[in-house]
Amino acid sequence: MDRIRVGIVGGTGYGGMELVRLLLDHPAAEIACLVSRSEAGRRVDAVFPHLRGRIEQTFQGPDDADLAACDLVFFATPNGVAMHQVPGLLASGVRIIDLAADFRLRDPAAWTQWYGEAHACPELLADAIYGLPELDRDAIRSARLVANPGCYPTAVILALLPLLRAGLAGPGALIADAKSGASGAGRGAVVGNLLTELSENFRAYRVAGHRHLPEIRQALDRLAGQARELVFVPHVVPMIRGIHATCYAEVDAGIDLQAVYEDAYAGEPFVDVLAPGEHPETRSVRGANLCRIAVHRPPQTGRVVVLSVIDNLVKGAAGQAVQNMNLMFGLPETSGLTSLPIAP
Amino acid sequence: MDRIRVGIVGGTGYGGMELVRLLLDHPAAEIACLVSRSEAGRRVDAVFPHLRGRIEQTFQGPDDADLAACDLVFFATPNGVAMHQVPGLLASGVRIIDLAADFRLRDPAAWTQWYGEAHACPELLADAIYGLPELDRDAIRSARLVANPGCYPTAVILALLPLLRAGLAGPGALIADAKSGASGAGRGAVVGNLLTELSENFRAYRVAGHRHLPEIRQALDRLAGQARELVFVPHVVPMIRGIHATCYAEVDAGIDLQAVYEDAYAGEPFVDVLAPGEHPETRSVRGANLCRIAVHRPPQTGRVVVLSVIDNLVKGAAGQAVQNMNLMFGLPETSGLTSLPIAP
Amino acid sequence: MDRIRVGIVGGTGYGGMELVRLLLDHPAAEIACLVSRSEAGRRVDAVFPHLRGRIEQTFQGPDDADLAACDLVFFATPNGVAMHQVPGLLASGVRIIDLAADFRLRDPAAWTQWYGEAHACPELLADAIYGLPELDRDAIRSARLVANPGCYPTAVILALLPLLRAGLAGPGALIADAKSGASGAGRGAVVGNLLTELSENFRAYRVAGHRHLPEIRQALDRLAGQARELVFVPHVVPMIRGIHATCYAEVDAGIDLQAVYEDAYAGEPFVDVLAPGEHPETRSVRGANLCRIAVHRPPQTGRVVVLSVIDNLVKGAAGQAVQNMNLMFGLPETSGLTSLPIAP
Amino acid sequence: MDRIRVGIVGGTGYGGMELVRLLLDHPAAEIACLVSRSEAGRRVDAVFPHLRGRIEQTFQGPDDADLAACDLVFFATPNGVAMHQVPGLLASGVRIIDLAADFRLRDPAAWTQWYGEAHACPELLADAIYGLPELDRDAIRSARLVANPGCYPTAVILALLPLLRAGLAGPGALIADAKSGASGAGRGAVVGNLLTELSENFRAYRVAGHRHLPEIRQALDRLAGQARELVFVPHVVPMIRGIHATCYAEVDAGIDLQAVYEDAYAGEPFVDVLAPGEHPETRSVRGANLCRIAVHRPPQTGRVVVLSVIDNLVKGAAGQAVQNMNLMFGLPETSGLTSLPIAP
């Protein structure tokens, strides 16, 4: 089979960098063009010296790249960019995976509320498939347009999916206390993300409402079949990669939740349910397209505590995007995604 | 006034180190003796080079130090050590502040359950005062034996105190999702605490039951006037100092919680309630005897989220111990505790 | 005595923040005004939440502050700002300590070469005193204008001063291999200084010529009484605070260098020569106005290796500035500079 | 071709962990047995949770493993262990790669001096090949016993090899100022290697003589054809992986060193000479079997500064061991070693 010709728009953020890393080792895809407005004309390995010797290409400006000649275009751009280019590319027959938020919310009013502008192509929202394979694998296979999930939503939804799908969560609020490494905030020049500001420091942020909240709620409500009360509190951890979600829900005492989770994820190549009593650590998935989950029931409480970890740049972004590509093009789902986590 | 003559037993852990730092700058106390079994005979500044030029003393072995001649002895020893020495010292008229857990739980059976051995002097438990000044200031003033609170309990109890004291927490479980820097685990030689194991990593631990759980529950139940369901999940953050507690409770919609918190802590020298919408960060209290708290009510939920931060070695250990000493000896409560946090 | 009324221009960088921290605890100085172009009108503790409860002031714009009414003005501005304001303030009788580079090089041509523009007041360069007390204490006492040394120069000059003053360095090149924490690069929004770029990473930079090179060379040549060949290589360490200089020089075998260093720094309140065989660590000076030095002679070589550590924001910037203020105003040299290093 | 059956002795240190990671993805090798005295009987993925789902094996005790049935045995044991087992295995026809120091020094007296005991099989030292392919590729191909180089020696020797081989280094001392991440110190439970001790800290160590000094000197003297004065100063960086060597030598002004280095390493698959003026960073090789080098000539000096970076666990240990295995077994030298560095 010919290699899939892929384009990457927004190749200089961390999501784009990670896509390049994964695709350079992918057995069935080739990077046809890399688009960056800010770095157009520079060699990719001048911007990213860790790629020296592995890539000869040059970043192209948005008007120079022949994206329409690609089989698939990944958007790793800031929110609100892809929606302006996607309709034209779809019309050219190109399939799309958007790593940003442009196509994640089905309700255009919600998009406006959380992203502060009208959606440029609301008519496409109903066609976009939310690209969480464990939730909607078959729809992804035939999708033209995949909305790749956010990093927090991936960790939280995978933590709660078996519980909600089985209708086992009690009526109280679902709580998702989530912690992310700094790469989740992107590669922008922001004082608050300097090493001197983040290192030896820990804090919550956006408790009043993070943009991933409506995305998580949309997925959980769909799984639950009803609107659920959800509290989502993100925090930033002084490390580069990794998300840890600690999720709380009411449950009845008698249910064997370990079995529920193991059954729900049996056969899933990228979700690992740990043995009872274990605690996943973010480094156990560093660099790999994996989510590891542990299910705890603290004694003397009526709660379940579900712990889940992902690498926010892999299963939370670029790795999941490649997984979606594999599904869309009929490849083995694990193609190019088998490298081992790096520890220590 | 003569300076208070203090002894420190267990001067080589992080709690002991921090006590030495604070007491060397204290205007009304002097370190009469420093006891360390492992470092007996070595100069303190050979073990802790950051103290060179500021201390001439030598660690003494447990049998060599004249602790009975001290006005006050701090125990910064591992759990289960102080309880063997405290009765004799009390009999000699020495007052005691124990930074370990030996006198924190009022129920000797709970001590046995959580610490794996019988308590050596259960008859003293009823006399020991739990040394959280914001909870029990007057009792501390006259105490002979103060049980200095644990680091997690300090952060969690201060976060929930105004809510519970005012009877404003709804019936659902209280959830304390807490995150600690690595110094909370002490200075023992443990593989799991190596930089290579903790750095670029995040994980929960002891979800099934951490030793601080019964301590927190004892205080919260006392504040609430009834037994409360409590879920406590600790996590380790790749940094040295700092605890961040994220606490969740049910509350009615109409209550002005900001005012409740500001009123509860008005006049408290070491608790700072942030303005609405702010998020405390651990570095804002690094090195200082402070707890900063923010109160959030996420939209569309019936929950309050209380965020609190402390430096686990200061307000969570040695600083609070000095605060207790100040109260016990009739000094201004802030004596020796006014140095500013260090940021960045 | 009345308190010294000080102004700080450029209060929002790390040097300015650290000045505020030190001056708030200084027994004989008070901050009369804080100038920040970017934060004018905001409360200081809104910008720096770690100062909440300790400062009531608001940043003023450059035109609003009455700097001329101060006894002393600190400039903690980017290079090239102070030189435009200093002549006027001096004319008003205000004394100046500039933490930037504007008055460090005596040769205006060198300033132009390294800073890329003509000097605004070259006539003042001859009057400016290089504010390294261990080098030039008496001149500082009577100075109107003090050029506070750079962070690398402080660490390197103190490491080599005894050797060069005693004429003990052989003819080969002096090598200064220096390592700095990230706060040395300032608080600017620069991609290269993000936690995600600096953490888990180490690199040299500006090997072809760092702006501190001519400053170091000027001081070393003056000490040596001749031009010396100097290689200076800076590196960035994934930490916030601290500089470690590893300096190499040729020396004759027979000299007791330990005695030379101990004699040279006997009586210096802020320089500590470690015992033979020891290695200073940056955390042993964190937050404190100290330089610790160790002298090594590796076997089978004709070289000395001098290791020196400082906190770049304290002895390498704000602390040294306060030390200079103390000298200029006849205060005890250690006033406000006695707080202990913070470890861990 | 049948897969190479390899055994790993000492699988629970960082070198062993990294060998497992690389060999699990190697196309022509299989792990036949994993030996650990401390973890015998435990599943590998219970000790290393990041390997869950990828390895089914159990650690064997030293007496239970059939190492003699392997084609190749890697020793990733502490120094002084392999030398007791190697003679027997060689007699059984097994080939050996020792990642420890047992066979690196050709002079048994030097081994005794630096490692504090007599060598157990000094007669093998002359046969052992020093496994730095860039130095001695052909000898490695036919070796029975390969002494895998130390991490610092790999970085320093590759930095100076072209200079010394071409006879271009002047007579002055060679200086190697080297900086290592904490994984270089191993996975032992040592207080000094706790996160709380190493993080936010930087220091030199063993300036009087590190065990890698004789190893480096042996290789450099061989390249130079004469004994060279060498100063080697190691430092520990608060990060997990990576070594940065900053090397200094005298050179004549007229030589085009960039060309010398590019020529010397032309065709080397794992050494990358950067463009003039660039500075390698350790993260550019993280997780990959690469050494990146830059050559600088600071203006107004007669010195060259060579900067080299490796991942100490890959090109400085396990990756180089696999590279040696590939050479010994006639495989493509890059087999199993093509995964990309991970950044950020």
Automatic annotation (TrEMBL), chains A, B, C, D:
It is an enzyme of class 1 (oxidoreductase). It holds the Pfam family Semialdhyde_dh. Pathway: Amino-acid biosynthesis; L-arginine biosynthesis; N(2)-acetyl-L-ornithine from L-glutamate: step 3/4. The keyword Lyase does not apply. Gene3D superfamilies: Dihydrodipicolinate Reductase, domain 2 (3.30.360.10), NAD(P)-binding Rossmann-like Domain (3.40.50.720). Its EC number is 1.2.1.38. The keyword Cytoplasm applies. GO terms for cellular component: cytoplasm. PROSITE patterns: ARGC. SMART domains: Semialdhyde_dh. The active site is at C151. Catalyzes the NADPH-dependent reduction of N-acetyl-5-glutamyl phosphate to yield N-acetyl-L-glutamate 5-semialdehyde. PANTHER family: N-ACETYL-GAMMA-GLUTAMYL-PHOSPHATE REDUCTASE, CHLOROPLASTIC-RELATED (PTHR32338:SF10), N-ACETYL-GAMMA-GLUTAMYL-PHOSPHATE REDUCTASE, CHLOROPLASTIC-RELATED-RELATED (PTHR32338). Belongs to the NAGSA dehydrogenase family. Type 1 subfamily. This is N-acetyl-gamma-glutamyl-phosphate reductase.
